[in-house]
């Protein structure tokens, strides 16, 4: 599932995000959502979140 809708993303959810430094390469980082940083209901590039380890990125994939 894509991470474009804020309603689909909850704290504690396992996701794959793309960090700012990896936007060109498209490398995805796996982690667990600690905080949701995007305020709007949707975002075309993915909802921005902070992972439990402190890394920040936009959700590209929600892991079931």
TrEMBL record:
Spell out the Pfam families in the cross-references: DUF2196 (PF09962)
Q: Which domain of life is it from?
A: Bacteria
NCBIfam families per the record? YwbE family protein (TIGR03833)
- The name this protein carries in UniProt is YwbE family protein
Q: What is the lineage of its organism?
A: Bacteria, Bacillati, Bacillota, Clostridia, Halanaerobiales
């Amino acid at each position: 599932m894509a991470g474009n809708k804020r309603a689909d993303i909850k704290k504690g959810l396992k996701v794959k995000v793309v960090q700012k430094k990896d936007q060109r390469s498209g490398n995805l980082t796996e982690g667990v959502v600690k905080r949701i940083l995007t305020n709007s209901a949707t975002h075309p590039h993915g909802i921005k979140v902070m992972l439990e380890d402190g890394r920040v990125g936009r959700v590209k994939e929600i892991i079931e």
